[in-house]
Structures
1.
Amino acid sequence: MAQTLLWERAITSNAKVEQMKKQNYDTVSGVNTCKENIANFEAEIAQLYTKIGLLECQIAD
């Protein structure tokens, strides 16, 4: 009886650990996706600033 109770607790604990591992992976994955998006937007912004500079030169001419 006591062994069965301990076994059930161990199974429950293992399930909780696996759930926490998945949550951690999902969180890290989400953070990495955000970092990639930020890098992409920063690159796009830099390109737009370059384009603005070129257009301002054309207007000045």
2.
Amino acid sequence: MIPCNCFTCQSNCISDNTYLTWDANDYGPSPLVLNIVHDTLRNPTFRTTRWTGNHMQLTLMSIPADSNIGLENHSEVDQFIRVEAGEGLLLMGDSPYHLTFQQSVNENCAVLIPANTWHNIINTGNEPLKLYSIYAPIEHSFGTVHWTKADSDAEE
């Protein structure tokens, strides 16, 4: 994080919204206090790992309009997602061909995804869908930064 002389979260001290000051560092496994809403809204990347510990991981995501996270399944990982801005459609089910759970999501929605559940979130709005995700145990390599979904797909 950019150092500052305030007594609150480091990210509270960043006042602009430019990519030039975006901090893509993974601060795990050291202790960290941050303004999660501020960091999530400022994140310009498809996916950035903000903190990776031994048993849990925090990622920030920005899903462009007319895009999606991508259909995925984490066989041994529970996942928590919170939407901070935008709107989307959540799909979940027991197979990639049986996504029986469908729910609209928007700002302030929390999503809990059990391990071994197929899921995707489609951005249905005109602005980026801004969200953060917590995985337990960790899902992505320490320091992962995917500027685009194509970067993410290429790594899998």
3.
Amino acid sequence: MPDDMSNGSKNDIVNLVTPSMLTGNKRRNERGSINDIPFILLFIVIKIIGRSKTKQTNSKLPPGPRKLPLIGNIHQLEALPHQSLAKLAQQYGPLMHMRLGEISCIVVSSQEMAKEVIYKNLV
């Protein structure tokens, strides 16, 4: 086979295949992005329902400051955490719920409340 014909046939095959492949992929991407919208909406609805259910199950917990995802209330603790907790206790009371990262904590900020918590858990 001469070199000219082999190169010509390779180019013809590339020219025939490439446009159809690009067009097909482009259409698939357009349809794929439209088809993804219901799944994204479903994911958002499930997240909202899940959050409302967790609020209902955590209603027995004492009040506390608003939490951020992943870090919880760590951003509210300053260089001197005891002073930050004292300020938060003035706002939320002597017994409050906080999340330090993924760890759920109950903070007791008064001597009377500490005695009550200990007494109720021992008896």
4.
Amino acid sequence: MPAKGYRAEKRADGWMIVNADGYPGISSAIQVTEWEAEVIADGMDRAFAAGQRRRSEEITALLKG
């Protein structure tokens, strides 16, 4: 199985979703649980693989409800 494109990474200011190279996939760290961060990273990975990549602002807006 290929490596995941996105993953959740714990930082001092919250969780950051990063790509395989460690670059941020969203504009800023988010305040969520570890499980939620993993779900978000998985969703971003699936969307990217399906050719439906969303802008980080849209993803952040979805997270905030």
